[in-house]
Design a protein that fits this description.
The structure is a homodimer of 624-residue chains. By secondary structure, the first copy, chain A, is an alpha+beta fold. Chain A is built from 24 helices and 16 strands. A six-stranded mixed β-sheet of chain A has the order 2-1-6-3-4-5. Chain A has a six-stranded mixed β-sheet with strand order 8-7-12-9-10-11. The first copy, chain A, has a two-stranded antiparallel ribbon with strand order 13-14. The longest helix of chain A has 21 residues. The mean pLDDT of chain A is 96. The interface between A and B is large, with 45 and 45 residues.
């Protein structure tokens, strides 16, 4: 291996305020490459089983990849991982922005955090140096005030800050980590883990220029990729409308999650779709490090009731659905205000929206009443109820205290049949994709180690049209989106590995393989040019398969079993209206597909990767 | 799939002298790509189980690949396959030369032959046209006379002829098919299957220029590859000495098969090694279509006792060992003469040498005596005994009649404990590699669907030094050649797929991946430039895995089971001398490694690919 990659991992122990540097060596870097694999490696190596996720024993990992920080569009993400307080399973959540590249410029590929500080602290990492600083000035503050205060304290506005808001401090199991107010490690409650460690933020600044094995080639790929982004249809759409562009299409297809996942069409869709967005609240576009897609939207409004500040982020598709159609809320300014409240407080908009939808359906069905909610009705379509519930959840007060547990535990606390409307997988609320319209996404939700996860999962619509690079995987014909047959299981498995590449390498789905502007060949060239490794798509997909298998082993160790690999009851019931009327996922066929997936993946009937599969993937250290 | 590949398969029925053309379509071509996959596809689809290999029901396939005939070095091979009369298992054997490309120029990717002609015939395929011609003038003739006669009959010396010699006509189960007197489909007795169909030869001539999706890129890869061949060390060695260059190195390592696989060093090695070869019998070099390696050697001698004709081919490494060290024969001119006799008669030199070695050891141990052999001793080191035995085997006369059965059946016929010295796997004699010195090769021998096969098997020495493109597979560190541990099983499995690419795409190991001058990236580019498919190493290795799984399913269907996946008794016994003294393969550890391989491969404990694995590989049509 010529010109090889070698980097550094920062290990911090908050209990005794110490830190040390690990250089794991090139073979380790090439075996795992980054992101979810780095996280899973440390969680499996160093975390005991059955640990309370909010105890000081949990391990919190911030990880980039060997290619993060290269100036190619989308090569800018990082992951945050730990055992999840929301699910008790493998917790992991990625974000874009500038924080990941900045960590690399500061000299580290990842930060592994153990223990718990005796009082609130933040980490200040600058060009290799590390300080564990008192967070007295920022504890209790929202994310914006935290950011501004830390800028002042370190005296540099170019510092990138990943922080938690009050929700994380209050250990809400769906609290986020976020950076620069518009990039979110949203899912699985990593903000609560950070809070449990008394860690308010990690501020990073680096001026180290990354060394690439072939800088000329990196430049060439960057240019070629940016040119493709300008014309590759899925990217053209993202550049024009961002993710809000999805709202209308999904509604037209009859699968825009509406009324707590009951329906797939939303009457008020025209008021929250991309056109409405751009004609009303849109302020400007934003982007991530070195990315030419510019899919981020910022919003602004002087409205007194629903003021919007462009610094606090604009709603993405998931938020438009979870705080919009899912609640039958067509009040876009209120929706965007709800989004900004979540951002300021550090709440995941997906889990927050799903939890409110759950509450609204419970209210609709008399399972909870105004007696429970402090005298205020919680009805579908009531934007203001959404807003006060967000504030109450973030502050864990009133009925918000119950909802701050997430739908699974809230339903248990409420009782009275509430679990009938508590839609979650492995304890995680669901992103805004209805599995009845895309069985591959449904399989991804069922099988994701983190609970319902829409980022690591293949998109059936891509299979259907066979767009992008799918042919390079040997997917030669369109796959019917509603089936759960052999084709679907095979192509789900291939797609899962293909999309999983982005999780390992910390790339953005929106400019990478398999359906956006990056081709597989281009990606292999990029990894080679950056690292000097003479790699291949075959090797990269093997690395990716580790990122599927290791979290699975983690969850098996924590007691998860095939019964947890399921979707929500509602998806086995037919849509009652819209273009998908009558469509549902057959429960028996779906179970068969999951069982076939196990076998196809080299897992046993209990969904455990076999000894052979572990050996195949150089993971024999996980054989028990 | 733009610019896609679409070709034609010729189906011939000899029973009723008919033929037809199939155009299987692009998805089929891309799913299977060529060679062993095409063969396995037709054998599994169209051959009933339990058929007598020498009955008219057997199906004989000659197959190129989608890239055969491109002017890139090594892209020139074809395979011949059928149910093997030697093993009763999947029979398949590749050859280089010019015949494969000529078939492509004539308009076909493969020829599938069924039935049996009522009297001897040969096929004459010219620019798409097909004639089934009377073979009265060539039946009974040796390969050279057959070639010359057919040239005359069709009136064109540029015609390429794949033919059988008298050995094939006499249904000797290790009879070869060969083309141009120096390229051999040597193993598994395909010549006998051809003979059983009364098919003496297939003559082909085509003037069609192959169309490539990107001709400029094909040219560019050709030049780049030929430049690499000039400097890439393993290729430099092959160009200089051909395969005879291996003799000395293997002897020095203590693993040159000697004395019927008992020993690994041969006293007379200096008399049969590459230097002796080039100083005595060497005449000139030869090559295959468009190949710049030029590894073939031709030999010449006017010696009256051992005359050598440069038209009849020079011994390769396998022959130098099997007619040389294995018999303790250091008489190089006699050895080369034996090789030419085999070529003329159409006998596989590997099986022939192994069978004679078996006879010599039986004689040495009194299991057979001069009473059995017609009064002539058969002693190790007796070159003349080798020569008359070759002639008697080819003519099925005297003791040669017994030996013409191959070691397995000959031992059964001889009885008297002869099976103690009958070394075969699944009924196939072994190429000249001692598994005690390379456990990966031993695994390959044990697991090969065709019995001991040295062509589809990874080379431990490559793993040991980690040469060539192995890092692109994720093999990052040298692997110890003598182990049977997790590393070995994993890297064997990876290597098997990597070497298997050449079997699928009909490429020559000696200029292709993974250790010779072609890189994986170059190969992917070449397949893309030729076919127009936006492929990847991932897709190509999935195609290759089909070529491992389909023959396995074929053998399972024919009743083969894990007990057949074994090596020879001798390799579980220690070498008694040389650098490898004391080294053996532990039988229990080896069994464990095979069992782990099953699991790692997605096969069940009975060595049967699971339903999941078949679905994974688009082979659900093989689920029974």
């Amino acid at each position: 291996m010529a010109n090889g990659y070698n980097g550094r991992i920062l290990h911090v122990n908050l209990t005794n305020s110490s830190w040390k540097i690990e250089e794991p060596g090139e073979v380790w870097y090439r075996t795992y490459m980054g992101g979810s694999n780095f996280a899973a490696y440390y969680l499996l190596k160093e975390l005991k089983r059955d640990v309370d996720p909010l105890s000081e024993e949990n391990i919190l990992i911030f990880a980039c990849s060997v290619v993060t920080g290269a100036p190619i569009s989308g090569f800018n993400r990082y992951t945050v991982a730990a055992k999840s307080p929301l699910t008790g399973a493998f917790g992991e959540t990625e974000a874009g922005g500038y924080w990941g590249p900045e960590l690399k410029f500061a000299g580290y590929d990842a930060v592994v955090i153990k223990g718990r500080a005796s009082k609130p602290v933040y980490l200040w990492i600058h060009n290799g140096d590390v300080e564990i600083r008192d967070a007295g000035n920022v504890w209790g503050k929202d994310n914006w005030n935290t950011l501004e205060t830390i800028w002042k304290e370190v005296g540099d506005k170019r510092v990138r800050v990943a922080s938690i808001g009050p929700a994380g401090e209050k250990l809400i199991p769906f609290a986020t980590v976020q950076n620069d107010m518009e990039h979110f490690n949203g899912r699985t409650g990593m903000g609560a883990v950070m809070g449990s460690k008394n860690l308010k933020a990690i501020a990073v600044r680096g001026t180290k220029k990354l060394k690439f094995a072939d800088p000329g080639k990196v430049k060439e790929i960057t240019r070629w990729h940016n040119d493709r982004i300008k014309t590759h249809p899925p990217n053209v759409g993202l550049t024009k409308y961002g993710t809000p562009g999805l709202v209308k299409g999904l509604n037209n297809a009859g699968i825009l999650p509406t009324h707590n996942f009951r329906d797939g069409v939303f009457e008020g869709v025209d008021k929250i779709d991309a056109e409405a967005y751009h004609n009303t609240i849109f302020h400007s576009t934003g982007t991530c490090y070195a990315c030419s897609v510019r899919c981020k939207r910022r919003v602004a409004s002087d409205d007194e009731k629903y003021p919007l500040d462009p610094r606090f982020g604009g709603p993405e598709y998931e938020t438009l659905a979870c705080l919009g159609s899912l609640l039958e809320n067509d009040n876009l300014p209120a929706l965007a205000r709800g989004n900004q409240l979540c951002n300021l407080m550090g709440l995941d908009t997906i889990s927050t929206g799903c939890t409110i939808a759950f509450a609204m359906e419970c209210f609709e069905n008399g399972i909870i009443t105004e007696k429970d909610t402090g005298g205020r009705p919680i009805r579908f379509g009531d934007a203001d109820a959404m807003l006060w519930l967000i504030e109450d959840i973030a502050n864990r007060r009133g009925f918000g205290e119950t909802l701050s547990l997430g739908v699974k535990e809230a339903a248990e606390k409420i009782g009275n049949g509430a679990e009938k409307y508590a839609f979650h997988i492995k304890g995680s609320e669901l992103p805004a994709h209805d599995g009845r319209g895309k069985t591959g996404m449904a399989m991804g939700y069922a099988l994701s180690a983190t609970g319902g996860d829409h980022v690591e999962t293949p998109h059936d619509t891509a299979f259907q049209k066979n767009v992008g690079s799918l042919e390079s995987l040997g997917i030669l014909e369109p796959v019917r989106p509603l089936d759960t047959d052999y084709d679907k299981v095979r192509y789900f498995s291939l797609g899962q590995k293909a999309w999983g590449i982005n999780n390992c390498l910390c790339l953005c789905n929106f400019c990478s393989v398999p359906i956006h502007a990056m081709t597989f060949a281009g990606l292999v060239d990029a990894v080679t040019a950056i690292t000097g490794w003479n790699t291949s798509l075959f090797e990269i997909i093997r690395v990716t398969e580790r990122s599927i298998v290791m979290p699975r082993v983690f969850n098996n160790r924590e007691g998860f079993s095939p019964k947890d690999d399921r979707v929500i009851r509602r998806w086995h019931e037919s849509f009652e209206n819209g273009p998908m009327k009558g469509k549902r996922i057959d429960e028996k066929a779906f179970r068969d597909a999951i069982d076939l997936y196990y076998e196809l993946s080299g897992w046993d009937k209990e969904g455990r990767p076999t000894r052979g599969k572990l050996v195949d993937l150089n993971l024999e250290w996980l054989i028990e």
